[in-house]
Design a protein that fits this description.
elongated, 13 helices, alpha/beta
Length: about 550
């Protein structure tokens, strides 16, 4: 395939093939404009070489547009969905003259951030001039609030989007395009994500990560166009966020509320929603240590690790206290209720093993009530606690049970992570029920410190080459007919053996898996680059 040269006035990359526009003339009669827009897949340069002629603000007037080669698609992670090629010098930041200007006051944060990153002057609301980057909101794009258009033309850059998030993603693309002294290619990028949920979940309960480390991950996530950060901050080992309602449960190493507020502020500036998780009724060992009367015990009186007695109203009361308190701290719309691995439901005969729970289930749901019904009632009650605070609840898939006298509320989203639980159901069963799912497939997306229980550290290459959001369980995808119900996915760091890696080792270990996950959540098509070229590109732009 020939790239560049004098093949026409413009072109668009389509599924790895450069399709050029038809020239309307030759020599000085050529229009030199862009080709018509056609959906396509970008083909980034693995070497990070300059993608079009460099521009120096001190250089003489540009050559005639016809003398420039047709631009190549920008090299970014994730790759842009569509690039319309054109002839021209492209754009590079010139510190002495170039500015960032905005058309809307609401884009000031995006403008200041980009100006600081590219060492340009932020000029606020001003008319753009040669060398400038202009940020603007535009209606009628029709591609959703996270879509954007980035145009490089006449030595200027213009980024427009229906909403601020889209403009921000356009600035991330531009930042990567010029990283390492490269040139943003002439032409127009039209880009949008395939999935609305693109996340990283951090288990900060089992292992304390300091605030600065979490903030670094937020910056990394923002540059990769992720939009969610999950914080699992309560588990058997520790409770990691300061509490006013129950300070006695908080571990010595924890985040203060001021630190959390700074994390939230930084996340908001990157258009990232922080999703908190207080897992219950299991994984509450840190709470139980200070409130032993809440401990679940079996028929022999033996304590069940991490599990509260859901027949005890005091257990619901303390969990609701915490949910209400943190609902005020975390402003995002989404809330993770956990609900996984409740030990009373990991035995063959819960009613015999836990007669107190069985009796409570019959009292609430009638003679056919079972322990699983009581657990479902617990989940629904916790969802009812967070809804008045404007929260959309979600829970792990092994907290949902088929049949029975109680069913999980329809609005509770399924965080699908495994099919290893007793009575495991195929993910298609949840989809057929009409539920929305978020993909946490533990086969690909679980980074479990110490690799216990047959877990292996996931590789970016495996995610990049064989995982898609349709692969919810194991390695086989579900039917594409369910694509709209799969809202996205999340890479997850779990710290089962917390001392196995340092913070720095975790950051390095998840770097390429995160990049691969970002690519697969942004663009549903097969990546154009080989894995080795993707790694080289990551070394250039990420």
């Amino acid at each position: 395939m020939r790239r560049g040269g004098l093949l026409g006035s413009g072109g668009v990359v389509v599924a790895g093939v450069l399709v050029l526009g038809v020239a309307l003339g030759c020599g000085g009669g050529s229009s030199g404009g862009s080709a018509p827009v056609t959906a396509g897949t970008s083909v980034p340069e693995s070497s990070g070489a300059t993608t079009s002629a460099p521009w120096d603000a001190q250089s003489p007037p540009a050559r005639p547009r016809e003398s420039y080669p047709v631009s190549r698609a920008p090299a970014t992670i994730p790759a842009v969905r569509e690039h319309t090629a054109a002839r021209g010098p492209g754009w590079r930041p010139a510190e002495d003259k170039a500015r960032v200007v905005v058309r809307d006051k609401g884009l000031a944060d995006e403008g200041r951030l980009l100006a600081g990153e590219l060492r340009l002057k932020y000029a606020g609301e001003d008319r753009p001039r040669q060398g400038d980057v202009e940020l603007a909101l535009s209606e009628g794009d029709g591609q959703g609030p996270e879509s954007y258009t980035l145009t490089v033309k006449d030595r200027r850059v213009r980024i427009t989007a229906p909403a601020e998030a889209g403009v921000f993603y356009g600035t991330r693309t531009l930042k990567q395009e010029v990283k390492g002294g490269r040139t943003a290619p002439e032409g127009t990028v039209r880009d949008r994500p395939a999935k609305p949920r693109r996340g990283l979940m951090l288990d900060i309960a089992r292992k304390h990560f300091d605030a600065a480390w979490i903030e670094d991950r937020i910056r990394e996530l923002g540059d990769l166009k992720f939009n969610q950060l999950g914080l699992h901050f309560s588990d058997d080992q520790a409770f990691r966020v300061a509490s006013d309602s129950h300070p006695e449960i908080v571990s010595s190493d924890h985040l203060t509320k001021d630190q959390v507020r700074r994390i939230l502020k930084l996340a908001a500036s990157r258009h990232i929603t922080v999703v908190p998780e207080i897992d219950s009724p299991g994984h509450l060992g840190a709470v139980i240590r200070q409130h032993p009367s809440l401990q679940l015990r079996d028929a022999r009186g033996v304590a069940t690790p991490g599990a509260v007695d859901i027949a005890n109203p005091a257990a619901a009361e303390i969990v609701d206290d915490l949910l209400k308190e943190y609902a005020e701290l975390f402003p995002g719309r989404h809330w993770h209720l956990g609900a996984d691995e409740y030990r009373a439901l990991t035995v063959e005969d819960p009613e015999t093993s836990y007669p107190r729970l069985a009796a409570a289930a019959r009292e609430r749901y009638g003679p056919d009530g079972r322990v699983r019904d009581l657990a479902t009632g617990w989940l629904n009650d916790r969802a009812e606690t967070v809804r008045p605070h404007g929260k959309k609840p979600q829970a792990w898939n092994d907290g949902f049970f088929p049949g029975g006298q109680a069913q999980a509320a329809d609005d509770i989203e399924v965080a699908y992570w495994t099919g290893k639980e007793i009575g495991a159901r195929d993910p298609v069963e949840y989809l057929k029920d009409g539920r929305d799912l978020i993909n946490y497939n533990d086969e690909y997306l679980y980074y479990v410190l110490g690799q216990p229980n047959d877990f292996r550290y996931p590789t970016g290459q495996r995610i990049y080459e064989s995982w898609t959001p349709l692969v919810l369980r194991g390695t086989r995808p579900v039917s594409a007919e369910y694509d709209d119900q799969i809202l996205g996915g999340s890479f997850a760091v779990w710290c089962d053996l917390a001392g196995s890696q340092t913070q720095e080792q975790v950051a390095q270990g998840i770097r390429m898996p995160l990049a691969a996950t970002a690519q697969k959540l942004w663009d549903p098509r097969k990546p154009a680059l080989t894995w080795n070229d993707f790694v080289k590109l990551a070394g250039t732009v990420h």
